[in-house]
Amino acid sequence: MRQKQARPAAAEAPRGPTRAQARAEAQEVLATGVQTLVVEPDEADMRVDRFLVARFPQLAFTHIQRIVRKGELRIDGKRAQPNDRLLAGQKVRVPPLKLDQPRPVSRNAAKDQDDRDFLKSITLYEDKDVLIINKPMGLAVQGGSGTKRHVDGLLEALKDDEGQKPRLVHRLDKDTAGCLVIAKTRFAASTMAKSFRARTTRKIYWALVAGVPRVRQGRVSTYLAKEGDEGDSRMRVAKHGDEGASHALTYYAVVDTAAQKLAWLSLKPVTGRTHQLRAHAAHIGHPIVGDPKYFDIENWELPGGIQNKLHLLARRIVIAHPRTGKPIDVTAPLPPHMQQSFNLLGLDTSRYDPIVEAPEE
User: Fold this and answer.
1) pLDDT in tens, 86-103
2) What is the pLDDT of residues 232-284, one digit of tens each?
3) Out of 17, 62, 308, 316, which residue is the most buried by the measure of CB atoms under 10 Å away?
4) Would you say 131 and 165 are in contact if contact means Cβ atoms under 8 Å apart?
5) Is 70 exceeded by the pLDDT of residue 17?
6) Under CATH, domain 20-94 is a member of which superfamily?
């Protein structure tokens, strides 16, 4: 799995919709008046505002929140609240939508250049529609309480002449490093959001875990539900039918081990639940090294030289290009703390990764 640095030449790319056509398409989608959307099974348990973000990535989140807050959204005929969670088959009535006109914002040119340089330094793949970065551990994807620097904010520096900035297509936890897909156009955002929703995007993660699983290649299937306050929440293994519980499915394979004390796992999540891999690793008794929320082995000591940081990497992603349909296949290198651990343990990243043989669903 080699890191992809390719930037396809314009002459080689098949002719797709122009920017104006893509913009017109987005406007047309939004100008159709009242829409009724049916919740798909894989969208069950999503908050209604997040559901709209996934369905309409070209809309600003503040605009979506405003629609819900004003009571313009209906779920099976009833007024929706922002934190309402959806059930498969429910009908969501959406009012006529309109793209917000970009507002001129006074920005610091030097800071914008610094942000552009930083993003360029962590870019794994880029073309006219798609940007895939190697998100560092510790950098949040979106802003939150007390979070000033995050990927979504950095993307402000990449606004085009029309004031449109690249859009996030999926998320990674703050302390998870690796491949993060970003859409540079509304057309790409809408198309790739559908790829994630339909689970046609292939994701592979690497983790260093405590102990060695007895079953070297297996499947973890549970229901997960959120518990705790929003700022300090975690996912617990739940039962089917529990409030807020969603099905989560992960395939894993042991790539190598270190003295039966640690294992290098390759993980393939089929679903995309919050903290899914971290909760599943802990559930099978092998929590991820450095995980502050899910590491629950008492009196367990880190081997010397290994840093107490989350050892989880979004190693590889394969997604269909929004215009050509051809696969974009990108691999991220180990972050520094994981590279240090692999060196200390003598783990060789060129080893064959058996997870490629795991099912896709």
Assistant:
1) 888 999 988 887 665 544
2) 789 999 999 898 899 999 999 999 999 889 999 999 999 999 999 999 999 99
3) 316
4) no
5) no
6) RNA-binding S4 domain (3.10.290.10)
DSSP 270: S
Residue 154 phi, psi (nearest 5): -60, -30
Dist. CA 118–CA 361, nearest whole Å: 36
Report the alpha-carbon distance of residue 97 to residue 33 in Å, rounded: 7
Residue 337's SS3 state is: helix
Cβ(83)–Cβ(50) below 8 Å: no
pTM summary value:
0.74
> Is there a shared CATH topology between the 117-197 domain and the 202-357 domain?
yes
Which amino acid, one-letter code, is at 67? I
CA 68, CA 49: separation in Å to the nearest integer? 7
Both tokens of residue 330?
A: 């990108």
- Report the C-alpha gap between 351 and 299 in whole angstroms: 31
Nearest C-alpha neighbor of 57 from the set 170, 203, 178, 134: 170
Contact 134, 15 (CB under 8 A): no
CA 137 to CA 336: how far, in whole Å?
Answer: 9
Residue 7: partners with Cβ closer than 8 Å, 6 or more residues away: 125, 126, 127
Cα dihedral 115→232→59→148 (10° resolution): -20
Q: Are strands 312-320 and 177-183 parallel, antiparallel or unpaired?
A: parallel
The domains of the chain are located at: 20-94, 117-197, 202-357
Q: Which fold has domain 202-357?
A: Pseudouridine synthase (3.30.2350)
End-to-end CA distance of the chain: 22
User: What CATH architecture is 117-197?
Assistant: 2-Layer Sandwich (3.30)
Beta-carbon count within 10 A of 66 CB:
12
Q: Which residues are the active-site residues?
A: 173
- Whether residue 147 has pLDDT greater than 80: no
Question: Do the Cβ atoms of 54 and 193 come closer than 8 Å?
Answer: yes
* Alpha-carbon gap, residue 173 to 147, rounded angstroms: 13
Cβ neighbours, 10 Å, residue 112: 15
pLDDT at 160: 84
Residue type, 215: V
